[in-house]
Design brief:
Blueprint: E1 5-16, E2 29-31, H1 41-50, E3 60-63, E4 88-96, E5 110-111, E6 116-117, H2 121-130, E7 161-163, E8 167-171, E9 179-180, E10 186-192, E11 208-213, E12 220-221, E13 228-236, E14 243-250, E15 274-285, E16 291-301, E17 308-314, E18 319-327, E19 336-342
Parallel strand pairs: 8-13, 9-13
Antiparallel strand pairs: 1-3, 1-4, 2-16, 5-6, 7-11, 10-19, 11-12, 13-18, 14-17, 14-19, 15-16, 15-18
Amino acid sequence: SVNPVKIKVISSATYNSLPDAPFKQINDLIENNDALSYAGPGDRISQDIIREKSFLLDRDILIKPKEYFLLMNQSIPIETLTPPVNGRTSLFKLESDGDVCVADLALYKKKYLFWSKEPEINDWIDILKKGNLSEKRDKVPTPLDQPRIKGQPFIYGRVSGVAIGNKWTAKITNSDNTFNIPEKNNGSSYALNTVYANTLGTNQNQSATMEKRYDDTAYQAHANYGITYQIEIPLYNDSESPKNVDISFDTPLRIGENKPNDRIGFNAKPPEKIAFRGEFKIEYKDNNGNTQEKFVHVVQRFGQKGEPLLSILLEPKQLNKVTVTYIYPADSTPPHVLSISTR
């Protein structure tokens, strides 16, 4: 650009897996208003972003034409670890008033006889201009615009590039502008985070399109890591009696794409393989009509029916708008559903 570009840092988060955000076992559902419960790095950074926290103190950045700006320069220590394996997970929510190019780079510290030196911006520019892409490369993805070859597995590929969009919004209704709650002991589920070739039989693919990508990386932003999902549910009790309503996040058994089904199923005893580690912000009105907000942390396995994120009593002819917001965290595997049921 021939003009300076202003960047506003809305929120930012970065953690090393060790010791800051290790994968660990915690309860399946925890009220997490204090943000002390997390089960992995993708989980923890998403929690910071949804709360609009920022580890970057400078919230306003000005980049002059043809200049570089070093947004983050953080280490990934391995010296004291056995085995020497670690990783850093980062997420930024930024706004700019012009086009910028962004690079995610890595290199080793410069080591001398008795000391080492962190890289400076000129070191990063050198890597940017002369360095190679990270190795080892992942499997080449299956093309989406060609017929599937029978008997061959579908390869999604590693997501790497620029995806279109940063927010997925929805409003669940079934009558005019409201959601009339189901009859007692009934419920409805709505697909979330669906991906190509895995839509729970709905043929609704929510994966963002990749605007820019490397030739050997994914064609879509499968799972939409880092994308904010915001779902509005105007619950309405159209009956003449009070009703208890549950809203849950579930990971049902997968359904073949050519075998649509009006029912979803779950494992009686889900395997220990984790499908989701993350947090939900729930906004609703209490019995006094006051707006409430709470954070609920969820850990879920493949084929697991979730516990309610919110249980609410609706009086006859009462309307209560509930909003469910989450940032889909890295280290999770879609698809999932949001279920609304009446007890």
